[in-house]
Design a protein that fits this description.
By secondary structure, the chain is of the alpha+beta class. It has one domain. 59% of the residues lie in helices and 9% in strands. It has 14 helices and six strands. The strands form two sheets. The chain has a four-stranded mixed β-sheet. Strands 5-6 form a two-stranded antiparallel sheet. A hairpin with a 2-residue loop joins β5 and β6. α6 crosses α10.
């Protein structure tokens, strides 16, 4: 099944949002507050902002993700996959009509599977924890989904948006340091930073369901991985997590504690809670699509709602 139009628009929106961070930095550099302030300098800054925003947004769709994926894959501390898993991957590739990819296994107790696009073919990496703890059909479902995901152009574009938006904290901090007047804009960009992550998961799940004849094991695999969200950041695979997180099914981002106080009360949660909620959303979305209902792929409403209501008593 073709990717729903709304899901494609989510990817385009992710690219536009990713470019916004770079546009803020460019505007700050064009009008640094420390060398004076004038209407002419403000106008130049505004023009630079618009031009850079447009150029970076377009560049997202031209970013050589396969080249980056190859650079990452060469640094993975992974070994050859067991013959059984390699044979399974080869058979699945034929069954779902995608090029046969390589499969490797990382010695790690953290259950996870990743897809790394390279110029010489797709690389699917499973951890030994996934091989040992997941059922055969669940592992096959994940491997099959990742073989599809690695080669899907919309997934690659969403991955590119994640990469472009990755250094947003440094970009926005630098922008405010150069020109404090841009602080409101920097805050606006920072708090929308996770959108590209949700966009990639959305189109990855759509591609997987569209190519997998039996998505139920994938649903079970997502739910099983959700139970390991608390240990996901312990995965060590040769590179820091922030450089490779966009390629893994279970996010490996560092644990951060968040507290929010409102008139209705306060909430506290960790990154692990976010990751678990995201996996449950993905499982629900795939399960719904397996019954022929693709409305869950019309946007990120469920994803946003899950994150907004973390540890909420309501």
């Amino acid at each position: 099944m073709d990717l729903p139009l709304r899901a494609r628009l989510v990817v385009v929106s992710a690219a536009v949002r990713a470019a916004f961070c770079w546009a803020v930095l460019a505007a700050a550099l064009a009008a640094p507050i420390y060398i004076g302030f004038s209407a002419r300098r403000l106008a130049v800054s505004a023009i630079v902002f618009v031009v850079v925003w447009a150029l970076v947004a377009l560049a997202v769709f031209a970013l050589p993700v396969a080249r980056y994926g190859e650079w990452v894959a060469r640094r993975l501390t992974a070994g050859e996959a067991p013959a059984r898993l390699g044979n399974v991957a080869a058979g699945l590739a034929i069954a779902i009509g995608v090029p046969e990819g390589r499969v490797a296994v990382i010695d790690s107790d953290v259950p996870n599977v990743g897809a790394f696009p390279t110029r010489s073919g797709n690389l699917v990496v499973a951890t030994s924890g996934a091989v040992d703890s997941l059922g055969r059909d669940e592992l096959e479902g994940l491997v099959a989904s990742q073989l599809v995901v690695a080669g899907d152009r919309w997934v690659r574009w969403a991955t590119a948006a994640q990469l472009v938006q990755g250094p947003r904290f440094a970009l926005l901090f630098g922008s405010v340091f150069v020109n404090p007047f841009l602080m409101p804009t920097a805050f606006l960009a920072f708090f929308g930073g996770r959108y590209a992550d949700g966009a990639r998961d959305l189109v990855a799940d759509a591609a997987a369901v569209g190519a997998t004849r039996n998505p139920e094991p994938l649903v079970r695999a997502f739910r099983a991985l959700a139970g390991h969200a608390g240990s996901a950041n312990q995965l060590r695979a040769g590179l820091p997590g922030f450089l490779v997180d966009q390629f893994w099914v279970l996010s490996t981002r560092s644990t951060v504690h968040t507290s929010v106080s409102t008139p209705g009360g306060s909430r506290q949660w960790t990154t692990a809670d976010e990751v678990a909620a995201e996996m449950r959303v993905r499982a629900d979305r795939v399960e719904q699509a397996s019954r022929g209902d693709w409305t869950a792929f019309s946007g990120l409403r469920a994803w946003r709602r899950a994150l907004r209501t973390l540890n909420s008593s309501g």
